[in-house]
Each structure stands twice: as C-alpha cells, then as structure tokens.
Amino acid sequence: MTDVVVPDSSxxxxxxxxxxxxxxxxxxxxxLVPAGVxxxxxxxxxxxxxxxxxxxVNAAEPPEEMTGVFGLGEREVIGLALTIRASAxxxxxxxxxxxxxxxxxxxxxxxxxLARARNAGHLSRxxxxxxxxxxxxxxLSERLYRAALVEAGEAAP
Length: 157
What we know:
Layout (H helix, E strand, L loop, with lengths): L3 E4 L1 H9 L5 H5 L2 E5 H7 L10 E4 L16 H13 L3 E3 L3 H9 L4 E2 L1 H10 L7 H9 L6 H10 L6
Parallel strand pairs: 1-2, 1-4, 2-3, 4-5
Helix pairs in contact: 1-3, 3-4
C-alpha cells in the first residue's frame, strides 16, 4: 500500500510529547496503528487522532518466531506491515529494526521521520525537534544526532 505507515509506540509517544505528532500524517497520508500499539500509547495519547486507523491484528500475522523476542507492539507493527505491504514501519528499537529490515520492510525511525518532515518542508529546521526529543528523555545517541544534522545541512561534517 502506497504512503501507508505503521508506527510503533515509541514514535507516537515521542512525537506527542514534543508536540509534533501532527507531522506523521503529513509525511505518510495513511497511518495504521495496531491495536496493541494503541493500547501501549493510551496513557500518553488517550484518544486516537482522526487520521489514525486502529487495526486489530490477527494473532497469526506477526511471525511466530518473534514471540518472546519482541513486545506486542513491535510484533504487531511488523506483522501488520507485512500483511498490507506498508510503505514503511516506524521502529526505534535496534533489534526490531534489524528484524523488519531482514523481512524486507522499509524501516524509518523517529529521527528519520523528522528528517523526512523537514525535507518535505513541514519543519524549517531539524535541530530544534531533535533537541526537544533529547529533552523528553528519548534516547538519541550523539552519533545519530550529529549524522541527522549533517545530512539536513544544519551541521558541518
């Protein structure tokens, strides 16, 4: 499915905390949120936004070998994305990203999503958003922070 993204809870929570959740449908017009992820984010995002479609994922959809390795959210994100052939999954967990990539899914993280939003003109600068992420206690390594700023042309290589 073109322009369909399946985000994990870390992305939704982080973007909500820094007031930039509205960017997600600007970058990807269709946002499908697995029911397990919707449950995980409920303390932060009490009601799904109009542009979010909550999807109940069949227990058979996440690959069985993922059980016990990843949380329900990651399993449902990957399972749903495989089923619908999503344009991308938004995952921040390194192991889940590797797994999804190994299954042929296009993977982007929260930082990559913000970079895409900036490149599409939805953010004038990337650095303030990354600084807000850091201030919200979102884990963002110095290496990724610098690389994102360099790629955005906001820091020297």
